[in-house]
Amino acid sequence: MTRHPHVLDKDNAVLVVVDMQEPFLRSIFERERVISNTIKLIRAAGVLGVPVITTLQYQARMGDVIPEVAELLPDSTRLDKMTFSCCGVECFGGAIAEAGRRQVLLCGVETHICVSQTAHDLLHVGYSVQVAEDAVSSRKDSDWRTGVAKMRGSGVVVTSSEAAIYEMLRDATAPEFKQILDVVK
């Protein structure tokens, strides 16, 4: 069966985790929601074989991703950047191309800055882009909502972590089903 192009496919998707660093998360609106759902997405990606690319904003000054995320990313590519859009660094485009997938699922911070600019740039170069609304945020609730609205208006598919995970799982008879149940609980 051919599926709608906005339904995530584990064999065509890549998860991008944007700037989950303590200096940014310290003042993020609903911090625990973002961390919890980002962890679910990373764990599900591991179960389903979906590549994960992680970005860091100015790592020398802002540090690595927070420990609870870092421990799930041992084999993940971590890319340092100074630009707000992840696409502003050549190695990001190379990592996305190397993954060989056309669907990009975004999570991380901040919604109205790095996540939004990355989403728009990826759309511009032909990727199908989705953002897990419950796995992104900003310092202010209004900026989070504005960022999501702008992306939605530009053609980014707004989804939830659980919806994305079950789309990639696709079928309750899949061998990964029981592991995914543990992830989403």
Continuous helix count: 9
Mean pLDDT equals 95
DSSP strand content: 15-25%
Number of strands: 6
Oligomeric state of the chains in view: single chain
C-alpha Rg (nearest Å): 15 Å
Q: Level of helix content? A: 40-55%
Strand order of the largest sheet: 3-2-1-4-5-6
Structure description:
With 185 residues, the chain is of the alpha/beta class. Helices cover 46% and strands 20% of the residues. The chain has nine helices and six strands; from the N terminus they run E-H-H-E-H-H-E-H-E-H-E-H-E-H-H. It has helices at residues 22-25, 31-48, 59-62, 67-70, 90-99, 111-124, 141-154, 161-169, 177-184; strands at 13-18, 52-57, 77-81, 103-109, 128-137, 157-159. Strands 3-2-1-4-5-6 form a six-stranded parallel sheet, sandwiched between helices. Strand 5, helix 7 and strand 6 form a beta-alpha-beta unit. Helix 2 (31-48) packs parallel to helix 8 and helix 2 (31-48) runs antiparallel to helix 9. The longest helix is centred in the first third of the chain and has 18 residues, at 31-48. It is globular, with a radius of gyration of 15 Å. The two termini are 29 Å apart.
Ordered list of secondary-structure elements with their pairings:
Layout: E1 13-18, H1 22-25, H2 31-48, E2 52-57, H3 59-62, H4 67-70, E3 77-81, H5 90-99, E4 103-109, H6 111-124, E5 128-137, H7 141-154, E6 157-159, H8 161-169, H9 177-184
Parallel strand pairs: 1-2, 1-4, 2-3, 4-5, 5-6
Q: Which descriptors apply to this entry?
A:
185 residues, 6 strands, globular
